[in-house]
Amino acid sequence: MASNLTYSQLVNLYDQSFIQSKRRYLSIALLILYIPIGLGLLLIRLSLLLLLCAAAAAVPSLNSNHTFINLVSLVLGIYTQTDSLTEPKDFIHSKQIFVANHITCFDHVSIKALLNKLYSVESNDYLNKESFFLANILKKNVSAKKLDSFGKQALYFAENLATNGSFKLLKFNLDCIKDSSMDVKPVCLRCSRPFLFGTLAVNLIESNQLINLILFLFSPVTIFKIDFSLDKLSRQSGESFEQWTESIRHSMAAKLGLELADFDAQDLEAVWNQQHNQVQIKNDQNSQNERLALQIKEILPYVSLETIEQHIRLSSSLDIDTVMASILDSDSQESSLLRTQSNPVVNQPKHVITSSKSSIFPTRNERKKMSFEERKFELVNKARKRYLARDYNLSLTDS
N or C, which end of the chain has less CB nearby within 10 Å? Predict the structure, then answer.
């Protein structure tokens, strides 16, 4: 894993707000006006997409039908642009692997609008492992082990992870096509969602395939710009597989105008899971503190919840006796301080008692200390008995 990889670096790979605009307030106001239209569009498109998905399942040959692909693109609001594919027929009848960067769950639809005979190489897509069935429309998979005997075109997303496509290009994982003799053709994808005075998010942080689908159906249009201008890259003699992989990534990053990331999808997944675990632990700790504070509040109703929570944090303990002792100590100290301030001590000459009785009878300070300890002991005992009696009554009720 990349040694200095942090969660703050990862969030830049995704859009952190639904709308980006220099005139943000104006765009937000227009977005609010658009919401009823967008929701209506979402419902209509979703209904049509379900029908198309059912049709594709009933008639598998539709997945390669150019008219049907264009219809799916229309329903999803996808508009595909390219100025580097002058002779599509040359690509359609060629045997090669298209290696592309990954932005959304419908990248394959935009490319199939141009190359309708395209198959997708099976791979693990980190952070999108829970596949949503509508995201697989028009997708025909081929196993990486069968590529050499596969006489058609294949599409592979080398990053293994969908990002917003505008920050950095992740390290490629081409292990699944390492032993294939097919030519590799780099394909560069760009994606945008234009909106009045701004753009809508392409791939939100914490998103999945379902959220991706909702963004497609809600947005007015999603524009894909596909660049096929990079030449095929064959592995040269003496060139290691890692060097060849990096040469493909460098050429695509230069064409897209992106920086090269020093981490891959697996590194990102590890940091992502670590962040989620830390958040979960913190939430669990907060919920335990809240439950303990409510229990102590029932036993000591005169103490505010804020004070109880403060003592829980200061004591760094979830033991009810420890926290209650801390509260009672603080309460007794405050009461003593108030009594001292209201009755200031007047300096008077002290008379030293030399009698042997001074070692038998406690002094005034000793009596005050004893009364404090006894009061504290009595309060803690009463609170404990009340708490245990409450648990006993609850157990009787449950039984």
Answer: C
